[in-house]
Amino acid sequence: QVQLVESGGGLVQAGGSLRLSCVVFGSTVSINAMGWYRQAPGKQRELVADIPTYGGISYAESVKGRFTISKDNGKNTLYLQMNSLKPEDTAVYYCNADITSYRGGSYSTRGYWGQGTQVTVSS
User: Fold this and answer.
1) Could you write out the three-class secondary structure of 81-117?
2) Contacts of 115 (CB under 8 A, 6+ apart)
3) 13-62: per-residue pLDDT in tens?
4) What's the Cα-to-Cα distance from 28 to each of 1, 24, 39, 70, 115, rounded to whole Å?
5) Is the dihedral of CA 13, 14, 17, 19 positive or negative?
6) How many Å apart are CA 45 and CA 19, to the nearest integer?
């Protein structure tokens, strides 16, 4: 059973920093694209940053220059370093991963979501 577990959220003042982590647990054949999304109250979930299977890293315009996404393949962990945080960054942050597994004699590829971690930035 594949599971994504996020950590690192919390309450921080504007201008501060946080580092989010997302660990992939379970048996996997490959971890393909990975990304961070966020959802603020009353708003739709939006992409913050992602590392695709092929191609370059992408960021939402609102976080460019402030957030950095990275991945440690050996630890099956995705990170999001968030600097110069603003009150408008307040949201629940979710990790998403496209993962290939082998079970019951066949391969399957699907997306998985973590449970989310709350980030609150006070002004």
Assistant:
1) EECCCCHHHCEEEEEEEEEEEEECCEEEEEEEECCCE
2) 4, 5, 6
3) 999 999 999 999 998 989 999 999 999 999 999 999 999 988 899 999 99
4) 9, 9, 27, 20, 19
5) positive
6) 20
